[in-house]
Amino acid sequence: MAQEYLAQESSKVNRTYRKTLFRLTAVFFILLAFIYFLGRNSFDLNDPSGREILLILKILIGIMLLAIVVGLFRTRRTAMNGENLFLPFGEDTKEAVAKKINQEAAEGKLLVEEYIDEFAEGKAPHGEKVTLTPSYLLLGSDRNKITVIPRNKIYWICAQVGQKGGPFYVRLLIFTENKMYALTGVDIEHVEKIAEKLYQYIPNVFCDYDPFLLSYELEKIFAKDRAEFVKLYEIEKAKHVTM
Fold this sequence. Notes:
The protein is α+β, with helices and mostly antiparallel strands. Helix content is 49%, strand content 17%. The chain folds into two domains: 5-74; 85-242, Pleckstrin-homology domain (PH domain)/Phosphotyrosine-binding domain (PTB) (PH-domain like, Roll). The chain has a five-stranded mixed β-sheet, sandwiched between helices. Helix 1 runs antiparallel to helix 2 and helix 5 packs across helix 6 (226-242). The chain starts with a helix and ends with a helix. Keywords: Membrane, Transmembrane, Transmembrane helix.
């Protein structure tokens, strides 16, 4: 029997996490072997400093083996019944929300499904992900957690470029009723395309303004005075409704 959408996503994240874990482990032991090869002639167990180094290496190996065990334990099973969902608005139970998301996915209603980073063809994508269904905006992470935001709780979405993070830095900002969420990428054009896709379903009420300047101003207002932000949002929303 084919897995439902959320179970498939959980399995993908688990596989990616395990691959990363094994790669880091391989690098660690290669580095350890390289260090031993360079210092094998000067290594003396009769010397107290030599025994101290050996103890440190044993501790490091123990920590790495423990990390492997913990990582494998973390990814031992697929998250089911919405147990990996985070519902900041508490609109329903995890099971009910998961059922709705899986149903919309099964009906082919994934309106937008994009990773925040762009990957070459043939390379398995991973990391932060944005998925839009008729009911929810899903923000996925590489820690097998998915933040679920109801569509009617979203005020504005934009791609905020640079400044604090430098010229090759971009954040996809999601302003909602209770907080602002941000996914960080480095491919500016790719993240801007994600925002444009989302605008097809979630209207950009601030489309008359330059997002490069506006996003920073609205971020400050949102953090300082939520009511003022909502007031500005409602004014712009009303403009576009009457057009």
